[in-house]
Amino acid sequence: MQQNKRRIKIKESNNYGLDRVSMIAEFEGNEENLLKIEVNKVLPVLPLRNMVLFPTAILPVAVGRESSLELIEEAERTKGYFAVVCQKDPKIEAPTINDIYEIGTVGKIIKLIKFPDGNATALLQGFRRVKIKRITRKEPYMRGSVEPIVEPVPDDKNDEYRIIVDKCLSTAVRILELGEQPAPESIFTLKNVKSGLVLINHLSMNTTLPVKEKMEMLCEDSMIERGYKLLSFLKKELRIAELYEKVRNRTRADLDEQQREYYLQQQLKNIQEELGEYSTQEQDAMELRHQACNKFWSEEASDVFEREVSK
User: In whole angstroms, how far apart are CA 149 and each of 38, 84, 96, 133, 219?
Assistant: First the structure.
């Protein structure tokens, strides 16, 4: 099968319900073909910590484990497919089939960047979902027998699907707009995604949901239901973003008023100094100090007096 030509866009944000870095691939062709690729019955298995690869999505992965690096290097060399799964417990160094979720996504290397310290970062392209039936080999990396999962995609003319996609898009854009650092390029990129399939999977993967809830979304066979789950999360995050915006605006208004008062006080003080005048408070303080000259106080009492007058 001929690979669809893609252009990768990188977007950065530090907004509430969306991760700071995410990538979107735009295809010249039918993205749904990614869900229909033919794969071998036995595939290498790449376990990830705290990351879930969704179909049609692009995921940057830092590769540190020796077994994972060997798998990635071979996959890049052979241009082969492999199954990408998520660990249930990220602390486990050598996971077994009992330590990984049984539903994963077929992946392929787009680009591999190696570093002098021996680590590497790989850009993975997500294809169709698969179920890991059993592990057939553990060394030098895991291999397992897999069962492809059929994933029906709603027609773009389906009103319910189209409305869900539109609502997910508008809600995600609003979250980005309310971020502490607005991300116009990210918003522009999202608005120009032509495929509802790509948009829902991209946003689902890049939310800050816990792994368990992301896996629930990945395991959802219906794109419409996956869209509903995504929209529910985005709406909650939007309410939080709006609350933060309200707090920021009130705090900013308070600070602006304080700064204005300080500025006016400084102006008044400068004018008085230029005219050789003293404020009423300064005159009162001078009078109190004059009267205190006739008092015989202890050193401690004098210190307290001066401190209070200075206020």
Answer: 11, 14, 22, 12, 10
